[in-house]
Amino acid sequence: MRALTEALATPLSDADATVQSMPDASPAKWHLAHTTWFFETFVLRDHVPGYTLFDERYPFLFNSYYEAEGARHARHRRGMVTRPTLAEVLDYRRAVNEAVAGAIDTLPPAALELIELGCHHEQQHQELFVTDILHLFSENPCEPAIHTPERKQPVAMPGPIGWIEHDGGIQEIGHDGAGFAFDCEGPRHRVLLSPHAIADRTVTNGEWAAFIADGGYADARHWLADGWAWVKAEGIGAPLYWEKAGDGWTRFGLDGRRPVDPAAPVTHVSFYEADAYASWAGARLPTEAEWEVAAATADPASGNQMDAATAVEPRPSSGGPAFIGDVWEWTGSAYRPYPGFRAAEGAVGEYNGKFMSGQFVLRGGSCATPRGHLRTSYRNFFYPHQRWQFTGVRLAKDLPIC
Amino acid sequence: MRALTEALATPLSDADATVQSMPDASPAKWHLAHTTWFFETFVLRDHVPGYTLFDERYPFLFNSYYEAEGARHARHRRGMVTRPTLAEVLDYRRAVNEAVAGAIDTLPPAALELIELGCHHEQQHQELFVTDILHLFSENPCEPAIHTPERKQPVAMPGPIGWIEHDGGIQEIGHDGAGFAFDCEGPRHRVLLSPHAIADRTVTNGEWAAFIADGGYADARHWLADGWAWVKAEGIGAPLYWEKAGDGWTRFGLDGRRPVDPAAPVTHVSFYEADAYASWAGARLPTEAEWEVAAATADPASGNQMDAATAVEPRPSSGGPAFIGDVWEWTGSAYRPYPGFRAAEGAVGEYNGKFMSGQFVLRGGSCATPRGHLRTSYRNFFYPHQRWQFTGVRLAKDLPIC
Amino acid sequence: MRALTEALATPLSDADATVQSMPDASPAKWHLAHTTWFFETFVLRDHVPGYTLFDERYPFLFNSYYEAEGARHARHRRGMVTRPTLAEVLDYRRAVNEAVAGAIDTLPPAALELIELGCHHEQQHQELFVTDILHLFSENPCEPAIHTPERKQPVAMPGPIGWIEHDGGIQEIGHDGAGFAFDCEGPRHRVLLSPHAIADRTVTNGEWAAFIADGGYADARHWLADGWAWVKAEGIGAPLYWEKAGDGWTRFGLDGRRPVDPAAPVTHVSFYEADAYASWAGARLPTEAEWEVAAATADPASGNQMDAATAVEPRPSSGGPAFIGDVWEWTGSAYRPYPGFRAAEGAVGEYNGKFMSGQFVLRGGSCATPRGHLRTSYRNFFYPHQRWQFTGVRLAKDLPIC
Amino acid sequence: MRALTEALATPLSDADATVQSMPDASPAKWHLAHTTWFFETFVLRDHVPGYTLFDERYPFLFNSYYEAEGARHARHRRGMVTRPTLAEVLDYRRAVNEAVAGAIDTLPPAALELIELGCHHEQQHQELFVTDILHLFSENPCEPAIHTPERKQPVAMPGPIGWIEHDGGIQEIGHDGAGFAFDCEGPRHRVLLSPHAIADRTVTNGEWAAFIADGGYADARHWLADGWAWVKAEGIGAPLYWEKAGDGWTRFGLDGRRPVDPAAPVTHVSFYEADAYASWAGARLPTEAEWEVAAATADPASGNQMDAATAVEPRPSSGGPAFIGDVWEWTGSAYRPYPGFRAAEGAVGEYNGKFMSGQFVLRGGSCATPRGHLRTSYRNFFYPHQRWQFTGVRLAKDLPIC
């Protein structure tokens, strides 16, 4: 797992790995170091007697948001830290890897659980690493490609959306406690669904272009009030990274600026845009429970997810009601605790619960989610205006109550 | 109904009625005129042939947020409109009242429904009128009283919170369609509750003072991340309008600055504060479904609500599990559509649906809610940092699943 | 003198007199009260034994910026003070007038000097009163007229600018100490002028329209860097209060919105605009010393100044090198102390000196300057982006050194 | 000359050279490239037939503010450009050096003048390079040292300030046209001085510590109004880079954090602070004319200036009325054109004139000024709140007019 993070850093210079492109994003070097700090702090410091910190300045530099872990560097100033260098941070990784490996046979079960948590934590940062670097390179007027483009098989345009109907009724969702999951995924609990239908695929770039062409970004009727204010204030008229080019569109990606593929799932759209699209399309977003019930039998290791440090991107579907991979799907559910939710004890209890206001749940993983990280119970969450992740849209609609 | 609005304006000077104290609040004169514009536009203009607008400039000035009704004055500049004067706006009210009264016998049912909606709409603005004026006067360094204080019967301190337990299971909530309700209150639908307990009264000022004294505002562990950022950025350390006075606290109210009554429900707290208090107290906020089920048999016209233009304020409870009046109770539920929700057609369809992101639901009405306006299905909503309304807290907690 | 202030308030409602339209402007009621506070504080409180304040809350409310006088209400919140009312403030004026009149025969010379200073101080606020109210009414979408328009004699378009040449050499400027002057006008001192020419009239609206038509606001070459940034950030394309109307322009004034008179001096332009215009015209702004030398023999009580509470505005010139009245003329001189300048002792020492950074000097008075207030040594000053005063432009240019 | 810039970059990593610490500062890599762009554009592109740009994307990336040269990257986003790398920019430098060297024998005089201008231009950026990198490293919580500290000879505390008196009268200042100077330094012209005295040395750190200890930052009476607002808004209480350490102070410098030397000139103070200090000391700042007359016979190549890429810093004076080096001295003169000033034609005409508003003149060069760059007529300029340059204070005072 740790090797993938380093592979992601391979194409990067020291400068690439240092700069912070916006307060929401972190430098690649910070991701490399913070994920290491997590192991050093919660495993080595707390569970290995006599362990000496690699560098006493690092906890201040590389703690993210754990209030219980004390003072830390201001998030929006992470890009000021040109030293330690990328090479020094890679040394830090090696040293902590070795210390954990050396101690692992004698660690208590609580520490082993924290190692497992640390691996899942690092996988989350692998996805952020990819999207943060993409954002940084998009801010360079030269728009350099991070990876060379991959050869792609031509894929036919997907047919019209098919609708998977559900009669409603009591279902169970949430993680059942077997194997690893983040605290916010449980407890497993019963939910009551209404009769509804959910689309068998996500919205494509071609469909999104039709929304634009129909004036979708200029018609207040489709938009939530906060979304409309955001569109006006920010001058939004297309997904992030899109640019008009003649009659069509290009997008910036890990392989540079290229034409938008009309058959691929649309991505880099905000919740506001997703909701407006659904309104324009006469539909709505699914709730997270509807999504999870529909995806219950899907293989969380399937689909277009991240296997290696390459130019991942959403791809045209080859058919079938795939719920996994490609793009995180905005749901209509605010990110709030499940019935009976309890945050974990101690600093790691700050992992999820304290973010449960103002954000919406996304489901299904993306092309940048490390394969093996996902579960169908997985709850990702972002603010409704954010769109630098690989975020997309699946439609749903109500069915009459029989 | 219309007379109460004018009674609320009676103690106000032209200047009092004109100034806007913050972008969230509107001038009293604007409330007087906007509620009148609603009747003039949707009833008289749309349904009375040959009706001539009272003043052609008023639709631009007094439309609030109806995109379908065209351009309008910027919300945060409403306080610039020193003319028309308060007297002219009262003339406008009289003229529209007379025109509606003159036409009412010949209006089609659709117009009568809009009159009913206009009455409920105006009652909402009556509450905002009270809270906006309170905010304005609080910004005056002299802190003038708007009303003379009312004589109050001394009331004993309420006893400890009692807990109303519920086994969970399928229940119905939402408006059933009989009589008036806002579109967001329906459709009536089934919900699945978890076993839980809900407090039989709201949190008091005395209890809140204990939270402060225990360092509640200074301990990040109790707070949502967004709430903690808000506390730090705004320097929050007590409910709005509270000031430290010796060992105790005073609050500013419609009757000026007076000592905080420890027995009365705490008010003017944000969702963030409510959530942090609940966390400190080892509890949580109720969901809106839990609240509505618990309050199902409550009389929505009962309790401490607004009957007249006086110095309304939350009052010590005289006992009993009162769910109605005193303070709007923050729930833990994000304001989102019910299953099957459809916004009304036309401009009035902008009434609720477009606000369904980023806000939390409040229930139960307050001392400033005009009596007769409330229903147990009523869904009020505000952003989690807002606290100039009469907002308070009721606790809930999970019960083990049997 | 005091009666003119009250006359200025005559057309205003309580609301008109209360609202603050921007942080740079103050409510009319505040001007009425602050000028009174000046007399009450520095004359009555400091020099009349046993004087009791009219209201103990007023010093906090109506001190402007005198740090030595203690805490005061935040400038940008002056518009929140709906009470005391306009009527109460007028009572305050009467009471202080009477107290000063009753004491005047027994006051020491220092107090009499403060009365004189207070009169000049109030005249300054009379001009601000006019421009602040104009700004407030311009923010009302209905753009009400404050005064009915005055009948004007038609005046021919002025001819081309004539140039008054000066050979340079040592001259004297500054106030010589005879009669009243503000501290910043002295000491009188020698200056060394370069050979130059100064225009015999100010720039007209017609000339300004030609600057606009020639793309003057869109060509960076004419602009100071700070000015260009301001134009871009604020979207500036014409003087304040101008609006395009067909082929021509209208302006908002004390008599409402009316066509721009091409023969009248342009007004409501910033220093940045004045400087850009001069650059476009192949000229420059005069220094304040050049201006004062050229205007040395002008009668400071002449020209178009304010005699009464009417719809004052700059007027077409009837000929002659008039330096006085109509518009304050931006000079190219930063507002800095004269050689040997010393601020007065005590609180009134905060009158001028502490504002001597970042601002530019304006000369000559305007249509809103109370007649009798001006001197040719008078130094007005504003920030280079400000333009809600009656500010205009006179050109100058260098002559070769013989 | 070009080699010094590269020497300054030697201690820097690619990341150090890329990050932008604030909008006022530029990345080191940008300085390296922009100074090269200047030669490539104005010499090679404009004067070498057939010259092909090194990289067509560079003009957009590395133009600073020349509007006539077309669109360019936003100044505050310069730190986003992680590519081209530092190595690529050094290649760019080599290529342009070689092209200029190859063409120099055949260049017309106008191009040779532009080479000379380009050298002076690059020297200015050498100083900014040093101060910008210092600022960047100060933002790193680890506060790394850029250079190892230099051994210093102990120097005695300077004695009290001596005063150089001047009777006033007509003097000449400004560049006389012989040899290179920036356009703003001329034309040479006569000025009229008042009788005054100017200090024979700058203010020391020890004297500044006394100002702090006397409450200088907390007493509004010493401060310009804009300065006081700045102190309050920014929480200023000491020079930039100072930190309280026990009873004394430390400062951050190119050699890391070390104790403040009480004998050395104070530096990293703003104009506001300089002016407040002078007020506290019963003095004032000199005008730029007073300074230039006093410094007329000083050797502009003398004193503590930058000779190499080392840990330059202001040093204790060894005596004598040194006007050159150590710290740029704030004058009381706003940066405005001299009589008869004309900006150069073409793009290089944007070099100085357009910055002549809102800034104050500084004189005398600093420890970071490349030796050979300075003239006694040299006019440096910054905004009154800026203090990341090596800026200091020399006092002056008025003498009675005989």
Polypeptide structure, described:
The structure is a homotetramer of 402-residue chains. With 402 residues, chain A is of the alpha+beta class. Chain A folds into two domains: 2-138; 163-398, paralog of FGE (formylglycine-generating enzyme) (Alpha-Beta Complex). In chain A, 29% of the residues lie in helices and 13% in strands. The first copy, chain A, contains nine helices and twelve strands. In chain A, the strands form four sheets. The first copy, chain A, has a four-stranded mixed sheet with strand order 10-9-8-11. In chain A, helix 1 runs parallel beside helix 5 (109-138) and helix 2 (28-47) packs parallel to helix 4 (86-103). The first copy, chain A, is globular. Chains A and B meet through strand 3, helix 7, helix 8 and strand 8 of A and strand 3, helix 7, helix 8 and strand 8 of B.
SSE order and pairing:
Four copies of one chain form a homotetramer.
Chain A: H1 2-9, H2 28-47, H3 58-62, H4 86-103, H5 109-138, E1 163-166, E2 169-173, E3 189-193, E4 196-199, H6 205-213, H7 225-234, E5 242-245, E6 248-253, E7 256-259, H8 271-280, H9 288-294, E8 328-334, E9 360-363, E10 380-382, E11 391-392, E12 396-398
Parallel strand pairs in A: 8-11
Antiparallel strand pairs in A: 1-4, 2-3, 4-12, 5-6, 6-7, 8-9, 9-10
Helix pairs in contact in A: 1-5, 2-4, 2-5, 7-8
